[in-house]
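Q: What residues go here?
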């Protein structure tokens, strides 16, 4: 993934507890805004096709199963580099297309490196994913090993108890250590928002992680009872907007967990466009963590090209 020439990584800032403790969220307003997105008419025809192609470019194509094998990861990587069939590419007038990255466990970095060979970013989940309840020494070492193995992005999980107990200094220090361990690899902070109880906690955790240097903030591991939602996304992207206004740094956003339909992808793209603007509709600032989403997008694009839907089983699974 090529970064824009003027793109600056988030350098972070000193922890400002006054700013963090002053964060407030109007839950009713967030729910109303989310409902307005769900009930409106979506983009249609060639505009929808263009948006769905952009969604593909922003997918972190993911496999995080206990039954993952090198062969499965190799197939995932091949799909990431060629996410649409050749006939659909030709009909849409596309010469090249790929997903934003692939996302795997540490043990699956090696087969991903063999297939991708630097052509796409490799994201590795780390820091005792998904619960994050290992020693700090273990978690930092895990990051270092994944970067050494070839991961160019690290998806870390925060310690949720720091948020639930309001220990913002501990969360900040933890995130700083993760950022330092990542070195040149970009770091995505997974908040596990389904575990954080309130939208106010989500907003405060978002701000603290950005202050500590997170390049992305991400909703979920995909393993919680509740994963990405539109109200949570609104809170997180507005925290990104506030942080950008405060520091000038652009932090990326990644919804993950349960984003499995083209319709849902369009809603998240709409949130990014309306809340943050066109600059954030790029893979270096927006990703969707997904495994089955690509199949539904491919079906929708085939319908646009041919007028017919095909069964999902006819499309190559990632």
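A:
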């Amino acid at each position: 993934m090529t970064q824009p020439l003027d793109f600056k990584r988030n350098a972070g800032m000193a922890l400002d507890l006054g700013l963090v403790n002053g964060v407030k969220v109007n839950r009713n307003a967030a729910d109303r805004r989310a409902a307005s997105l769900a009930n409106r008419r979506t983009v249609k025809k060639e505009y929808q096709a263009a948006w769905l192609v952009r969604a593909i470019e922003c997918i972190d194509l993911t496999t995080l199963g206990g039954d993952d094998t090198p062969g499965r990861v190799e197939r995932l990587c091949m799909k990431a580099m060629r996410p649409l069939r050749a006939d659909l590419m030709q009909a849409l007038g596309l010469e090249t297309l790929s997903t934003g990255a692939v996302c795997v466990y540490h043990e699956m970095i090696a087969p991903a490196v063999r297939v991708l060979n630097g052509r796409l970013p490799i994201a590795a989940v780390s820091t005792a994913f998904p619960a994050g309840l290992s020693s700090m020494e273990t978690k930092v070492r895990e990051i270092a090993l994944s970067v050494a193995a070839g991961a160019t992005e690290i998806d870390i999980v925060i310690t949720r108890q720091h948020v639930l107990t309001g220990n913002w200094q501990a969360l900040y220090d933890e995130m700083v250590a993760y950022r330092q361990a990542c070195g040149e690899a970009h770091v995505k902070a997974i908040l596990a928002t389904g575990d954080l109880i309130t939208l106010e906690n989500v907003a405060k955790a978002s701000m603290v992680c950005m202050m500590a240097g997170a390049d992305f903030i991400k909703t979920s591991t995909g393993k919680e009872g509740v994963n990405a939602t539109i109200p949570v996304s609104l809170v997180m992207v507005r925290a990104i907007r506030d942080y950008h206004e405060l520091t000038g740094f652009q932090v990326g956003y990644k919804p993950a967990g349960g984003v499995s339909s083209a319709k849902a992808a369009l809603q998240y793209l709409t949130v990014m466009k309306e809340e943050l603007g066109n600059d954030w509709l790029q893979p270096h600032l927006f990703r969707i963590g997904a495994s089955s989403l690509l199949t539904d997008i491919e079906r929708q694009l085939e319908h646009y090209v041919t007028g017919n839907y095909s069964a999902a089983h006819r499309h190559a699974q990632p």
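A: Context that may help when evaluating the design: The mean pLDDT is 95. The chain has one domain: 17-305.
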